[in-house]
Design goal:
The chain has about 325 residues and is of the alpha/beta class. Helices cover about 40% and strands about 15% of the residues. The chain is built from 12 helices and 12 strands. It has helices at about 25-30, 30-45, 60-70, 90-105, 130-150, 165-170, 205-210, 250-260, 260-265, 270-280, 295-310, 315-320, and strands at about 5, 10-15, 15-20, 50, 75-80, 110-115, 120, 130, 150-160, 175-180, 215-220, 290. The strands form 3 sheets. Strands 3-4-5-6-9-10-11-12 form an 8-stranded parallel beta barrel, surrounded by 5 helices. Strands 1-2 form a two-stranded antiparallel ribbon. A two-stranded parallel sheet has the order 7-8. Strand 9 (about 150-160), helix 6 and strand 10 form a beta-alpha-beta unit. Helix 4 (about 90-105) packs across helix 5 (about 130-150).
């Protein structure tokens, strides 16, 4: 599988990553044997970036991923995340350190490769939404302290929240990586927002991150599953998925996804999901793309999609023109 440079970290990561979150659900609610088979197959296929977070399944994803990777003695790159709640504002540094210690305890490890802030970034602090000033002045120094302590090699943040705040975080150059919302329904992180498209304009965030030599980790590559073209969910998967940066509701995203179906055959793709995955990896500023899995078949399909390679320029143009 193709490897790409994760920005200034210098790490070489697989273009397809393993998302162990609740949207797919295998690592929050799946059987241990199925989790083990999936990771073994992922590693065999060349996947070497694995993503989890304390939030996923209230720590179950970290526990399960840590257990499986440790048992397989895998030489891979692993990232996890910490999310601050309102009460943590009183002592952000302490909360970040505690979050790291809790994550390492659940995973059974003494360090991770990447530790990331999981809160949406905004101008005005409000509950789960974290003010950019706090992220830059309090969170980043706390994360840097963990680097110096050897508990993480690199630090990053989730690129959700207000566009101006996300750009400010990138411009600060305090973080090594950024998770970017980028998909065929909202490609604005990689280029112009399609005319008449709903959703948030991310203002070519991928290009800004590349200019700052940050690694980019694509999230919502399938718009929470909407780019499968159906609202049916696997029993392990999150049954209700709120859109991020796209249509006002999931059914709206599914309807827009179906409009792309004529491009499936023209692009040589097997289905709509493959089209969407090949769209994401076509952008040169993408380091790795996370996909969440409910079954081994989902993983096999994603592996086949990325190994087929990026979409052609004419197909890409038809998608971004809307």
């Amino acid at each position: 599988m193709q490897k790409r440079r994760l920005g200034r970290t210098g790490l070489e990561v697989s273009v397809l990553g393993y998302g162990a979150g609740a949207v797919g659900g295998l690592f929050t609610k799946g059987a241990a044997a199925d989790q083990e088979r999936a990771i073994a197959r992922a590693i065999e296929a060349g996947i070497n970036y694995f993503d989890t977070a304390a939030l996923y399944g209230n720590g179950e994803s970290e526990k399960n991923l840590g257990r499986v990777l440790k048992a397989q003695q895998a030489n891979v790159v692993v990232g996890t995340k910490v999310r601050l709640s309102t009460e943590h504002r009183a002592n952000v540094g302490k909360a970040i350190e505690q979050g790291m210690n809790d994550s390492l305890s659940r995973m059974g490890w003494d360090h991770v490769d990447l530790f990331q802030l999981h809160n949406p970034l905004v101008a005005k602090d409000a509950g789960d939404k974290l003010a950019i000033d706090i992220a830059l002045n309090e969170v980043a120094p706390a994360l840097e302290k963990l680097k110096k302590a050897g508990k993480t090699r690199f630090i990053g943040f989730s690129g959700v929240g207000e566009t101006a705040a996300l750009h400010q975080a990138i411009d600060s150059k305090l973080f090594d990586t950024v998770q970017v919302v980028y998909n065929a329904l909202n490609p604005s992180a990689g280029g112009a927002m399609p005319k008449g498209a709903p959703g948030q304009d991310y203002g070519r965030l991928l290009e800004k991150a590349k200019a700052a030599d940050m690694g980019t980790i694509i999230i919502r590559a399938l718009a929470g599953g909407a780019l499968s073209g159906t609202d049916q969910r696997h029993p392990l998967a999150m049954q209700s998925v709120d859109p991020i940066g796209s249509a006002p509701n999931f059914s709206g995203d599914v309807a827009r996804a179906k409009e792309l179906e004529p491009l499936v055959r023209d692009s040589g793709s097997s289905n709509l999901t493959e089209l969407a995955e090949r769209f994401v990896i076509a952008h040169p500023a993408v380091s790795t793309m996370l996909v969440g899995y409910s079954t081994l078949d989902h993983l096999e399909a994603a592996i086949a999609a990325v190994n087929k390679g990026p979409l052609t320029e004419p197909t890409l143009a038809r998608i971004v023109q809307g």
